[in-house]
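Quick bug: Solute carrier family 25 member 48 output formatted oddly.
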Amino acid sequence: MGSFQLEDFAAGWIGGAASIIVGHPLDTVKVFGFFKGMSFPLASIAVYNSVVFGVFSNMQRFLSQHHARESEASRSHTLSDLLLASMVAGVVSVSLGTPVDLIKIRLQMQTQPFQEGNLGLKPRAVALGVQPVYQGAVHCIATIVRTEGLAGMYRGVGAMLLRDVPGYCLYFIPYVFLNDWITPEACAGPSPWAVWLAGGLAGAISWGTATPMDVVKSRLQADGVYLNKYKGILDCISQSYRKEGLKVFFRGITVNTVRGFPMSAAMFLGYELSLQALRGDHTVTSP
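Here's what came back:
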């Protein structure tokens, strides 16, 4: 079996779609509230997860096969392999996710109370009695590129790297090891129940620990529409701490953790079952 497989990307797309369907009632503010009647959230997040899962799975498989040539333990998951594959997936996710998150936050700011990271910002366009800056997703992209250049689409990229690289390490690594721990040695692969439980717990762990940097990332991306408050990551952290204390970085941690379980459980279960169907396997297999 070759090291690069397109099935992982297709299965990641299906898993991403499953997570959005499950998370829709729990995540309307962060994802759907400002794209009513549009397919943008489903399409973009499904594609995003497709790339992340495809990159992680192929990278992890490549590393495992490399070690298999040097060792007999070809089936074991080494921590170093999982760590490197997770970090690569995190970097790739940032390249895709930063513009998407930026557009979501910019549009949300002007149409409804901005609760990303529980910041509690009010819709400024309404409060100030002015016309919204952006007329929609396409106009938002065009405006940002025109006024801030292509680099403007990556505002907050540093904070997102600090959120997603460790975040995906705490996403994939717990998932794989929990699966290995739950699944009896006699089984060829984990059961759907094991996938659901391991995926849910991994999502809760990842989203819970990512909350502080998610708050910083969101504040940086919200900055610059009507005024510029922050000079960078450290300035944002400093100002936020000085004005609101340490607790500001943990706002929304309970919601993020609780929401992370069903969305990630659906994500991993959709991924694994669709991968099984695509490959014609009879058992669920780990990435």
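Actually, after a second look the formatting is fine. The chain has one domain: 7-279. Closing.
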